[in-house]
Amino acid sequence: MLKRSLWLGLISLCYIAGCAQLPANDNLAQTFVLQDVSDTKLNQAVAEQVANHPGKSGVTMLIDGIDAFIARVALVQAAQVSLDLQYYIWKNDLTGRLLVSQLLDAADRGVRVRILLDDLDTSGKAQGLHLLDMHPNIEIRFYNVFAHRRFRAFDFVTDLDRVNNRMHNKSFTADNAFTIVGGRNIGNEYFGAQSHAEFRDLDVLAAGEVVSEVSNVFDTYWNSHLVWPSSVFLGEQAFTEQEYQQARAHFQRQTKQDKNNPYLEAVEQVVLDAQFNQRMQNLRWVKADIYADAPDKALQDAITSESHIAPLIGKLYQSATQELMIVSPYFVPNDALVELFADLTKRGVVVKIITNSLASNDVSIVHAGYINYRKPLLQAGVQLYEFKPTLNEEYVDSRKWYGSSHLSLHSKVFITDKQQVFVGSFNLDPRSVLHNTEMGMLIHSAAIGISLVEAIEQHIDRLSYQVKLDQQGDLIWQTTEAGEQVVLTKEPYTSWWQRVKLTVQSWLVIESYL
Questions:
Q1: Mind listing the pLDDT tens digit for each residue in 236-265?
Q2: 184, 191 Cβ separation under 8 angstroms
Q3: 54, 337, 357, 512: which could join 333 in a potential S-S bond, CB 3.0 to 4.6 Å?
Q4: Segment (H or E) for 500
Q5: Which of 295, 397, 382, 398 is nearest to 338 (CA)?
Q6: Active site residue: 417, 444, 461, 501, which one?
Q7: Helices (H), 40-196
């Protein structure tokens, strides 16, 4: 009898869960990028260079984590009119809170702030986001929301086809003058602050022609029918003005305490105006384009270049005549892509792929989908490298803080013939192709392509293992440590149990969901 009651209860719960409805967003107010920004500090700082390079974009790479964080803080502090931010993840940690504090300061001085977040990461953050949205100059919207706000697992059970599609885009635009596009979300691990791991990542800071393209992409998403204002979920939880002021005072006390952290002390030692001016001097003026999926790409019947960037990236690969370098932390190629790489190597193209090792991969299930392709890739002539999970002693420097000694690759970079460089959010896996929306910047520049390839190749032997086949056709991992060549016959830095789980997962995994 008890078992029967339990089953009936579970069935009733699932029925109730399945009846949850999405709130209406028919009256979503459309807003767009502010165009009259020519007299802002940011636009004036680059106006002469823009005029001298019509149709081009000034770009510089943000490689170091703290450098990427400082660039964002500098843009927020310099903004006078607008800030448009689009992210998959925004963590409530040291760097996340400091950026929120800076955004509040910007909104206080009259800057319009629009923040578009994927709803997958908003769980447990409702109160803070609603309070932030209460500021008259800040608006927050969510992409592809969950009907069940407290028990989101119900949506994965009852509405998987819809909620499996997420917004993975990352962009940060100030005064429609400067933008940052790349692989970093907002959180300590992306900026080298204290965290469970330090993600090696890459962004591009850009001015000029490409900025308006990023702004247009943001507006397309911001005004999409797949986006909801955060305010529609407030319901009876609306906060009074007094509660808002109390919450803000508490937040200010918390961020004040954060400033005792060695990482933020290092940030504060940087003279942001000087750093910003230095960035202006380092801009390379090149042709650049923005690739972006349509917000509703997962609803389309076919994969086309009108709604998906995957076909455009495929053409980029096929255009290689000498070398194709792919850096993708989550890497699950299908048979067709392996065949494409094989055709390239037959034509004499050197194909190098750098991805995470099992020990450095923060999503082991993705690695389970990847391992089935290692031997076919190597047999096709591809050079395959897997990122190491630990900080090499040779890289210990004078920093007074360390984010983590555990490393994970998070950069998404494709370089063809050292001439074209794609930097963005796109992983070479089914999720990026089919389910998640993605964006990135394609830079046409031999100077940037050569410098990036040289930088990668300079450190690749120390920061990664080259995966090869021995004479018996078995996998080996080869690397250089302390000047000596080391050869391993098992997944590096892993236990037998991790390897057993990986093998079982590789049998069961549904590749199209990775």
A1: 567 788 888 888 888 888 888 887 888 888
A2: yes
A3: 337
A4: helix 496-508
A5: 382
A6: 417
A7: 41-52, 65-78, 94-108, 126-133, 153-158, 160-163
Residue 159 falls in the annotated catalytic set? no
Q: Given 84, 118, 133, 175, which residue is catalytic?
A: 175
Strand partners, 469: 475
Q: Which pLDDT score, from 0 to 100, does residue 391 have? A: 62
- Catalytic-residue membership of 417: yes
- What predicted TM-score, i.e. pTM, was given to this entire model? 0.93
Q: Quick one: pLDDT at residue 11?
A: 46
Active site (annotated) includes residue 168: yes
Amino acid at 139: E
Question: What's the token pair of residue 164?
Answer: 């499996």
| Unique residue bearing structure tokens 């080996």 | 476
Half-sphere exposure of 211 (CA within 13 A, CB side): 26
Identify the DSSP state of 28: P
pLDDT, position 483: 81
Rounded Cα distance between 250 and 253, Å, is 5
Report the SS3 class of residue 495: coil
Q: Check whether 270 has a pLDDT greater than 70.
A: yes
- Active-site option among 53, 168, 297, 406: 168
Q: Is 297 a catalytic residue?
A: no
Are 452 and 421 spatial neighbours (Cβ–Cβ below 8 Å)?
yes
Q: Report CA-CA distances (Å) from 262 to 233, 265, 404.
A: 38, 5, 14
**How far from chain centre, in Å, is Cα 429?**
14
Q: Which of 53, 297, 406, 412 is catalytic?
A: 412
Spatial separation of the C-alpha atoms in residues 407 and 197, rounded to whole Å: 6
Q: How much of the chain exceeds pLDDT 70, in percent?
A: 92
Which strand (E) or helix (H) includes residue 62? strand 57-62
- Is position 287 annotated as part of the catalytic site? no
Q: Is 84 a catalytic residue?
A: no
Q: How many CB atoms lie within 10 A of CB 371?
A: 18
Token code pair at residue 276: 């910003």
Strand, helix or coil at 116? strand
